[in-house]
Design goal:
- The protein has a domain at about 1-35 and about 110-260: Rossmann fold (3-Layer(aba) Sandwich).
- The protein has nine helices and nine strands.
- The chain has helices at about 5-10, 50-65, 75-95, 100-105, 115-125, 140-150, 190-195, 235-240, 250-260; strands spanning about 1-5, 20-25, 130-140, 155-160, 165, 170-175, 200-205, 220-230, 245.
- Strands 1-9-8-7-2-3-4 form a seven-stranded mixed β-sheet, sandwiched between helices. A two-stranded antiparallel ribbon has the order 5-6.
- Strand 3 (about 130-140), helix 6 and strand 4 form a beta-alpha-beta unit.
- Helix 2 (about 50-65) runs antiparallel to helix 3 (about 75-95).
- Bound molecules: magnesium ion.
- Magnesium ion (MG) binds near residues 24, 27, 28, 207 and 208.
Length: about 260
């Protein structure tokens, strides 16, 4: 675990009432080799080969755009929305059912917690610390995953893309698509904002640089950014952008002990 010097003074955290947690889902709450909620169906044996091929064609075209450092942000944002919409139209075209979504989300071979993440979430619940999950993935999977793992506590709120089903079959997506580049624009419902209003300190959990945009640090007393090491970036990139970096060997138990000294 690599901890920035300036953060050490705050550890372990005091006055937990002042904190809430904002977390990415894919490969932050789930482990680094889990499929993401966009790729999970293609890695299950629940969908047709043609869906898998069409999804791959979209991925091969749009993924380089997503990580490109030369395309300007507005162009990128529009293309990301286009990608998500095209992918969702595949769910509709192939009449993917709600049942398939639920089965895929509970298949441990494709998606599972990082070690200790469940205990970390239980700790937040027991200590009344809100957990806001902001994901550019698919909220239906995330919700099923939390429910299946008995972690969908009332301190947990999931802000993500929600597929709409009619008679159990996918027909579209709710408005306001969240993609990797607009996670900063997520608007939380009033009842959640009410819960957060007296809390000035935030723990942010992510694995991508774009996850840092989930919280506007200028609006808070203290934001502690915690990043999980991934193959997507050299370690130095993460350590220069995140306050604490959990390396591959570090789990949530270690993180919990560091933050809360238990
Ligand atoms: Mg992620």
């Amino acid at each position: 675990m690599i901890i920035k010097e300036k953060i050490k003074d705050f550890l372990p955290l005091k006055n937990l009432n002042n904190f809430y947690v904002v977390a990415d889902f894919d490969r932050t709450i789930t482990n680094g080799n889990s499929q993401t909620s966009w790729s999970i169906l293609a890695h299950s044996n629940l969908v047709s080969k043609s869906y898998i091929q069409e999804r791959q064609t979209l991925y091969d075209y749009y993924r380089p755009i997503e990580i490109s450092e030369t395309i300007d942000i507005n162009t990128k944002m529009n293309l990301m929305k286009e990608w998500y919409k095209k992918h969702i139209s595949l769910f509709v075209k192939y009449q993917i059912t709600e049942e398939i979504f639920e089965k895929a989300a509970t298949d441990l071979r494709i998606m599972q917690f990082r070690p200790g993440a469940k205990e970390f979430i239980e700790f937040l619940y027991k200590n009344n610390i809100p957990l806001i999950v902001i994901s550019a993935g698919i909220g239906n999977f995330i919700e099923s995953f939390f429910k299946h793992n008995n972690c969908y506590f009332d301190n947990v709120y999931i802000s993500s893309n929600k597929i709409i089903f009619q008679n159990g079959i996918a027909v579209g997506v709710e408005d306001n698509i969240i993609h990797s580049l607009n996670k900063n624009e997520v608007s939380l419902p009033k009842y959640i904002l009410e819960k957060l209003k007296d809390k000035n300190n935030v723990i942010l959990l992510g694995d991508q640089l774009s996850d840092l945009n989930m919280v506007d640090s200028s609006k808070h007393n203290l934001v502690i950014n915690i990043g999980f090491q991934s193959d997507d970036y050299p370690l130095e990139t993460l350590t220069s952008n995140y306050d604490i970096v959990c390396e591959s060997k570090d789990d949530y138990i270690k993180l919990k002990n560091l933050l809360f000294s238990l």
